Amino acid sequence: MNASKIVPLFAALLLAACAKDTPQALGTLEYDRITLPAPVAERIASIDVREGQQVDAGARLLTLERTRTEAQTEAAQAEAQRQREALGELEAGPRSEQIAQARASVSAAQAAARDANAYYDRLRPLGARKLVAAADVDRARAAASSANAQVKLAQAALDELLNGSRREDIAQGEAAVRAAEAQATAQVATLDKLDVRAPRAGRIDSLPYRLGDQAPVGAPLAILLVGDAPYARIYVPETIRANVKVGDKARVFVDGRDAALSGTVRMIRSEASFTPYYALIGKDAARLSYLAEIALGKDATQLPAGLPVRVEFDGR
């Protein structure tokens, strides 16, 4: 083959190579989203921001009605204080006045028992000689037995006071104090959450409810877009999945911008999206796609979320 034929053939091959499409994937720009749920079902008392506004970490976004939660918090704190006082009473033991009262009860029971026993002792020989009815003797014996039992009861009550609180009672009191304090702490935390604040700096993406609305518990009160820059969420075709890995460089093209943004693959799923691979056969397997994320630099800071992007992986 002469030179006149070789040059045109080489040029044709070069043009064919240049015309070959660069592997690419499609997707959109996204930010990390933070959803702030309603801690309680209360009316929105104030809204301090607007959608699209940039806010700092800790900035108050909106406030919920506080009356009911404040009352519940005060009740929980009062219950915790009551349990602490009850524990202090257990640890201090009985008062001297209670012990004196118990001693007096023992003395009174002993006096009543002596009188009942003496009466029974006088009546018993008379009953043996049939000088009194047997029923009177039986009543006297029962009264003496009851009086003796009252002495034992009063003495046991005195001994209980003298021995003080049991370890088990104190342990139960301590547990009750911890439970009440934990409940009070939880109520204080809920009260603090009524001032809904931004956990991170970001942009207000959505405020689903308006002033005066009462959102149910767990409903999103505000949605924030956070992060220094957006990232590209793309779907990598199965035909190039084997050649794409975390850490690879990529070029991200955004509609409306001529220059490509430089990015790095930060995540790629191991499982295909939408259709399980085992449900596809033959050429259908090439329709699989894998969700991936491309981290972008500071040159993408001002770009909004939702823009369509096209990503190329050089040399794939």
From TrEMBL:
GO cellular component labels: cell envelope
Primary residence: other
Signal sequence extent: 1-19
Pfam name, any one: HH_YBHG
Source species, domain of life: Bacteria
Membrane-spanning residues: none
Cellular localization per UniProt: Cell envelope
Keywords annotated in UniProt: Coiled coil, Signal
InterPro entries given in the database record: HH_YbhG-like, UPF0194_transport
Keyword Signal: yes
Keyword Signal attached: yes
Name of the protein: HlyD family efflux transporter periplasmic adaptor subunit
Start and end residues of each YbhG-like alpha-helical hairpin domain: 73-185
